[in-house]
Prior knowledge:
The protein is mainly alpha-helical. It has helices spanning about 1-35, 40-45, 70-75, 85-90, 95-110, and strands at about 65, 80.
Amino acid sequence: SDLxxxxxxxxxxxxxxxxxxxxxxxAKVRRDAHKTGLYDKLLEQQGGHCALCxxxxxxxxxxxxxxxxRVHEGEGSxxxxxxxxxxxxxxxxxxxxxxFKAGEYLRKNGE
Length: 111
């Protein structure tokens, strides 16, 4: 029906606006980290490699890891630099408490 199409269209437009806003916020975090020299400083502090593994930047830079929650709260959000593999595995819902429990679970069960 026309009413359904109208409601659906409005909902989709709202989702697109929200996604664009988040994408712009994340792009600003990345841009600022490169402009201010924070990327280079973090990479040096991390020994020239990913914060979680020994991967070093090759033809592409490492990813700027940031707290999605802090971006929206307006706080400093950059945590470090990560390789693609580590960055893609560190989901937005993962907390340090969850990581600790997961590590204990894997140790307990032979991993």
